[in-house]
Amino acid sequence: MGHIKYASDVGAPVEVAFTYTDNHLFVPNWMFGIANFEPTGELDRGLGAAFAARLGLWRQAVTCEITEYRRNAVIGYTLRGRLTWTLTLRFDPLGYGRSVLTSEAEYSPPRGFITGRLCAGPVDAAVKSALRRTETQLRREIEEFHGTDLVGRIA
Questions:
Q1: Of 2, 14, 33, 100, which is most buried with the most CB atoms under 10 A?
Q2: How far is CA 55 from the centre of its chain?
Q3: How far apart are CA 95 and CA 70, in angstroms?
Q4: Which residues contact 108 (CB under 8 A, 6 or more apart)?
Q5: What are the φ and ψ backbone dihedral angles of 153, each rounded to 5 degrees?
Q6: How are strands ordered across the β-sheet holding 50-55?
Q7: Looking at residue 80, what is its pLDDT?
Q8: 3-state class (DSSP) for residue 143
Q9: Could you tell me which residues are beta bridge partners of residue 122?
Q10: Rounded distance, CA 89 to CA 76, Å?
């Protein structure tokens, strides 16, 4: 299992950062490669909520489930399809009006003796790039969201 972790400061309190991230309508805005993200069951947030996600590059549908959830602390998305990986986002207070966003990705490396060895490096590089882009875009979106009057209406 591959594992990558990044942390960054966010110019918004934990509650605002988590509220933005927890809203499924905003997921395509910040999660790299996701073009569409719709609930498939009655739950649209919280532990056990399931979603149908469409990957933008391949137009392939994958399922996504929230597998870890603690309000204003952590949210974990597990994507299953041809690609299987888990994105965990942790939110920690940093001080007045700021927080720390820690993004972690766990993914299955390529299998097979030859294929695994040949593709391991490029796959690691692609996952690192995707996680970095996701984390950077999420941070920007949260800070922009915090600067609007939408904050009080969505929670």
A1: 14
A2: 13
A3: 20
A4: 1, 2, 84, 85
A5: -85, -20
A6: 2-10, 98-107, 85-95, 74-80, 61-70, 50-55, 34-39
A7: 85
A8: helix
A9: none
A10: 6
C-alpha 63/C-alpha 52 separation (Å) is 5
pLDDT tens per residue across span 101-142: 999 988 876 666 666 556 666 767 777 778 788 888 899 899
Q: What's the pLDDT tens digit per position in 45-62?
A: 999 999 988 877 666 788
Confirm if 28 and 36 have CB atoms less than 8 A apart: yes
At residue 12's C-alpha, the angle toward residues 106 and 46, to 5°, is: 50
The Cα 151–Cα 135 span in angstroms is: 20
Give me 11's structure tokens: 């110019």
**Coil, strand, or helix at residue 116?**
helix
Closest by CA to 88, choosing from 65, 58, 57, 108, is 65
The closest alpha carbon to 41, from 33, 50, 32, belongs to 50
The phi, psi pair for 51, rounded to 5°, reads -140, 155
